[in-house]
Amino acid sequence: MSEVLEKKTVLRVPDAYLPLLEDLRNLQGDYCNPNRMSINQQQQVWESLQKYGWTYPIIANKDGVFCDGEQRAEVCRQHKEFFVPVLRLPVSDVDRRMLRQILNKLKGKHNRELDGAEYIRIVEQGEKEPLKALLLSIGEKLPEGLDEHEFSLTVPETYEIIVECRDEANQKQIFEKLKSEGYKLRILTL
């Protein structure tokens, strides 16, 4: 990493991304990004950026409007980290929006057994606490008995619904009603 770059960023930038480095304050959102992160998830993103650096760039259109990576950019802004790799693509507004949807939604479905085996490998290499923090940030728990490798690799799937509420009072009312009926619940505010 060049000396000039080191003064601009504390995050690791792969050599291939150095030509893409630019000030994220020149980028803009469209105030319509449907993707939201919790504070805990934002912290996980920052810790990941600190540990691994930029594994893939922010993606924007030629005018600097985000296609992908707006949440990572916001996390960097919060930490006064302004220079990031940005891949600018010559896409129309509708294609930018489609690309955002594709990159936010098409992530595949995890095989629970392979996830469990991956958890074991991560724990065996001494990273149990970071794994627990990551899983907690996405609403999952580390399976019991993981240290002893005695847990079942078949993690039961969960089925969930999201109920949109008019306001916080309505949210509380619905929560209390469903809780009294014996449902396992958690509050999610977006």
Task: Set down the secondary structure blueprint.
Layout: H1 3-8, E1 21-23, H2 39-52, E2 58-61, E3 66-68, H3 70-78, E4 83-89, H4 93-105, H5 112-124, H6 128-137, H7 168-180
Describe this entry's structure for a reader.
Mean pLDDT is 83; it is low at 150-155. This protein has three domains: 3-105, Conserved hypothetical protein from pyrococcus furiosus pfu- 392566-001, ParB domain, CATH 3.90.1530; 109-157, no CATH class; 160-190, no CATH class. The chain has a four-stranded mixed beta sheet with strand order 1-4-2-3. Helices cover 41% and strands 9% of the residues. The longest helix is centred in the N-terminal third of the chain and has 14 residues, at 39-52. The chain contains seven helices and four strands; from the N terminus they run αβαββαβαααα. It has helices spanning 3-8, 39-52, 70-78, 93-105, 112-124, 128-137, 168-180; strands at 21-23, 58-61, 66-68, 83-89.
